[in-house]
């Protein structure tokens, strides 16, 4: 083999190696580029999910009101909010639980004073949605009842706080319960009983003021910290 042919062969091999290296560099750059794009997309999607999740659960729409506690009355009360979130209330509180009929505002507000969360819903809410609410309301210090004339599908109330919800599946509802139920920062009487009160519904009359010598009326609690106008 002549020197010229040997040199040509070496030059050809060098060109082939250089071309192969260029291909490998392009492949590596392409791989890293695609990998970088994938990472950016993943980070963006995770960030979007976190931000969107926080936005969906945000309680920024909660309205706050200021009411003093321990303001009892035997009379019917006209409330500013619908449903009410505080103010004067009956000496008897509503037993926490699930009601298929509307309850008296005056009893419900007293339960809020004890740290309960009261979920109200439109009477025409679909049964599947009501069942979802019943699951949430099956815990302690929870009230659930239909509410005629409610300005939204579902509204959750605690003492001095209220949020209008899009429905039974609104992710803000569990957050509201977690934040405001039995919260000592907002509850006038945290830890006070949410049973041993009354289970009266709105189609029954409010309990009359008992005379000092009267024995407890059937269906009403025999002992009641708020039964006396002088009680705190």
Describe this structure in words.
This protein is an alpha/beta fold. It is built from 4 helices and 6 strands, in the order H-E-E-H-E-H-E-E-E-H. It has a 6-stranded mixed beta sheet with strand order 1-6-5-3-4-2. Helix 3 links the parallel strand 3 and strand 4. The C terminus is likely disordered.
Q: How confident overall, as mean pLDDT?
A: 85
Estimated structural class: alpha/beta
Strand order of the largest sheet: 1-6-5-3-4-2
Sequence of secondary-structure elements? HEEHEHEEEH
Q: Point out poorly predicted stretches.
A: 215-225, 227-232
Distance between the termini: 115 Å
Give the C-alpha Rg: 33 Å
Secondary structure tally, helices? 4
What's the total count of β strands?
6
Largest sheet: 6 strands, mixed
> Could you say which overall geometry the principal axes of the C-alpha atoms support?
rod-shaped
- Per DSSP, what share of the residues sits in E-state strands of 2 or more residues? 5-15%
Helix content: 25-40%
